[in-house]
Design a protein that fits this description.
The complex is a heterodimer of chains A (676) and B (358).
Chain A (H helix, E strand, L loop, with lengths): L1 H17 L2 H18 L5 H13 L4 H26 L8 H12 L3 H26 L3 H7 L2 H18 L4 H15 L2 E2 L6 E2 L14 H20 L13 H10 L1 H16 L5 H14 L13 H24 L5 H12 L10 H5 L1 H30 L6 H20 L2 H19 L4 H31 L1 H8 L2 H21 L14 H22 L6 H27 L15 H4 L4 H18 L1 H16 L4 H22 L7 H5 L8
Antiparallel strand pairs in A: 1-2
Helix pairs in contact in A: 1-17, 2-3, 2-4, 2-17, 3-4, 3-15, 4-5, 4-6, 4-14, 4-17, 5-6, 5-14, 6-11, 6-12, 6-14, 6-17, 8-9, 8-13, 8-20, 8-22, 9-20, 9-24, 10-18, 10-19, 10-20, 12-13, 12-14, 13-14, 14-17, 18-19, 18-27, 19-26, 20-21, 23-24, 26-27, 27-28
Chain B lengths: L1 H14 L14 E6 L6 H16 L5 E6 L6 H8 L8 E5 L1 H8 L13 E6 L3 E5 L1 H4 L13 E6 L7 H9 L3 E6 L4 H9 L5 E5 H14 L3 E5 L2 E2 L5 E2 L10 H7 L8 H13 L4 E5 L5 H16 L3 H4 L10 E2 L1 H11 L3 H15 L5
Parallel strand pairs in B: 1-2, 1-3, 6-7
Antiparallel strand pairs in B: 3-12, 4-12, 4-13, 5-8, 5-9, 10-11
Classes of the chains: A mainly alpha (676), B alpha/beta (358).
Chain lengths: 676, 358
Amino acid sequence: MDLFATALPALADAWALILQPVVLGYLVLGVVMGLAVGVFPGLGGIAGLSLLLPFMFGMEPVLGLALMIGMVAVVPTSDTFSSVLMGIPGSSASQATVLDGFPLARKGQAARALSAAFTSSLFGGLVGAVFLTLFIVVARPLVLAFGLPEMLMISILGLSMVAVLAGRVALKGLAAAGLGMLIGTIGVADAGGSLRMASYDFPYLTDGLQLVIVGLGIFAVPEIVSLLRQDRSIAKDAKLGAGWMDGVRDWFANKWLSVRCSLIGVLVGVIPGLGGSVVDWIAYGHAVQTTKDKSQFGKGEIRGVIGPESSNNAKEGGGLVPTLLFGIPGSGSMAIFIGAIALLGSGDIEVGPAMLRDNLDITYSIVWLLALANVVGTLLCIAVSGGIAKLTTIRFTYLAPFLFMLIAFAAFQSGQNFEDILALFAIGLIGIFLRRFDWSRPAFLIGFVLSNPVEKFSNQAFQIASFRFRKSFEEGIDYIFSPIVIVLLIVTVVSVVLGLRQAKTIMAEGEVQSGSKRAPIVFLLVILAYVVIAVLNANAIPDYNMTDKIVPLVIGGITLAALLILLVQMILRPEGDTIFADKEMAGEDADAPYGLWGTLAWFAGLIAATWVLGFILALAGFLVTFLRVRAQAPWPKTLILTACGLALMCVMAGALNRDFPPGLLQHAVDLPWPLK
Amino acid sequence: MTIKTLATSVAALALMAAPALAEVDFSGKTIEWVIPFSETGGSAKWANFFAPLLSEELPGNPTVVVKFMPGAGSTKGANWFQEQEYEDGTLLFGSSGSTQFPYLLNDPRVRYEYNDWIPVMATGTGGVAYLNPEDGAKFDGSANGLKDVDLIFGSQGATGLDLVPLLAWKMLGMNVEPVFGIKGRGDGRLMFERGEATIDYQTSSGYLSGAADLVAAGTAVPMMTWGALDENGMIVRDPTFPDMPSFKEVCAATDGCETEGVAWDAWKAFFISGYPSQKIAFLPKGTPQDVIDTYTEAFAAVRARPDFAEISSTQVGKYPMFVGAGAEKATDEATTVSPEAKAYVIDWLKESYGVTIE
């Protein structure tokens, strides 16, 4: 009761702080800036916040908070635009949204999908805030109850969603997830510093691949290439069907799903060290498992949009708990947020254990500013969604060059290496073939995302468990099998069993015809070769660095087994079996007027030209050539569009103080920005 | 040509920066302070704190922007900086202990040479080690009672700043098992709070904002600080924690721990590089003296601000901020280690953790 006696006045103080016109003004300003940054895939909160940092120094705390929170809060909302409209996952928060949101856009229901997503986001944000208001004062012991075994179990629960998304041939889903995990282990191992599938002679890979690049490569590149080959608009027949009111109605019809997914979002968000990577997959899995007719998932099921979108804004609220209570950032943007808070005012607000005791009113202000920012951001997004949805009716050939431009720029921002763009291309190729042969791309991505947490938590939990076992057997067992672990274990087993039973009806890649044996077997052999090399490579790590080799070996072994069984099946089964699914046999891709390699060559051309001329010059040449040759646009239109594209890039990069990839030319001659 | 001109003019609009020609006057210029880490780390916080202050003190009040170039544990950014030559004084680089250690340990990724760079400012920090209450009760100013206790420590890696505590505990004869792979000292503290780790350390600011509360609540017992350097280069008690013994005192009181000899020299060299001279701001090689002086004066003016002690408390605490010649001396100490001490550390890393640096 004591707690509430202090909490209620603090809550009242917080509202008094927030409800000043100038504070609300800063909040709206932050939201608008956040939207402007967030619609660009791959930039998101970190870029936006770094932009604000110089202004934070000595600023009135509540104003600075309003500005920053406005910006952070809308990123998981605004990145929905690119996921739904273009199939480009804007950030890790919107990967699962792509699965059903983009098919809806292709059916001409972009406005419906967007407004359902935004309404869910809004609702999730509010549920998160209400929950946090009550929960934050008692959250500390709960957060501390989540040790390494518990975090490992949550990561495994996230991984178990592979079962739901595995596709028609469960082994292929398993192998895709395994391949994703193996690719996630590339680079210097966290624990012992061994190199895996990397070398110091080629330093790029030692840091591993960035999620942004893998997300864009796996989802965006294949869709862009496929649509471009078909030379049509995203929405079939260039018509927009359902309007934004339908989306709001859809949300209302599924409000309980939204409530449940919001709570999942807050609770997983609260756990430090996991953050957003698993939440939307768990919510998506939950949406699938609670839907009676599962046949529409992957083809445009609105529940597949509402679930993840309800959870991802709620997660931002949950993420405040470790950030504010422990001073441990749950995400990159939260890390900057903590740093920025120290600059505010006289610098006496310090996040960490003292936050609740000394600054409860500020804590509550943060929680509710986040909720308010969600409301403002959502209303703005819904207001513009009808208009932006019209993008899906444009002939895709006019959109594609700009999407290539955006994803190349986004990939480069992740590490500012030219190799980032090459990696995007390479992962894009993997994505194209996974899609073509109906290997689950979501399973691959889940594997990639969870590779690092699974490896880290299992190594650390193992080390601490063996330490406890050395003390006494009982202490070890207590540590591994805590009540939370047991509950999570049961949930995981149930979800795997149910998931496998349902997986056959969920076709993340839509209907895929089967064809001859040759192409699918060749692809399988290529994957097999990589897995064998990766396993041999891991095996070469000396035994005293067991922590660095055990996970790649185990995962590689399982993947290898799955691939070998698949190979045997492929040899034994007749042509036309589902195992030989191949998009090039029939359907949209097969009927497309343009070939795969010719289309991909455009993107390769942009990359090659960038290597020689630097990004901006290459882009200018690329846009002009593409619009003239491929789109057959007249000169005036070509020039205007090219100028718009270049201007957009320069203004974005200029405002965010970012560079472009330099080429050989820039090494030889000094050029002024943006050409340098 | 039209497109190129257009792009350039748009760019000019976006930047709104016209080059000025006056000597050591940065009016209208943009100074880029490159940090070889991501936006989320401690160096980012450090540079973001100093950037606006520096901007106020430099002639012409240029905009100072912090740029991030993360990768390969900061060696990527440092290698890049090595290749930069002086142009117009608008480039500044921020190095940290994580950049200095690979240099000291002959990491194969290192292609940079500290002697080429021109230090203009350096700041440091201290560190505090603490134990869980059960084992903390066995600590009596010496580590003699802790020798047969097994302890667990959440570590970011043996070749980073954690090298200093790990080596210190080893010299005290303590049996500390590191659990590698955590990200940031905050995670280490959380592991300690959950009871999974039984020993931990924090840098001074991390200790004050996080761990001091645990000590007050009785769930942690402070053990020692790493100490601080006095003007003669001797290790003394940390001014931020005058009531806590330094590692030097604890070592002297513990059987088998020597405060001289090769092990001690090795520890001290890495301690200096990782703590009292942890973060250093550099100008590129070839910078003319008048530009160096301009920066030195600007940083001195920042340090002389009447409110500096207050606003910098979470950044530099009570530790000296070195400018000019002081920064040069600090850099020198942070980047030199005797071959014997280096060999000792490399041997110990290989033997204890299987870490080979080749």
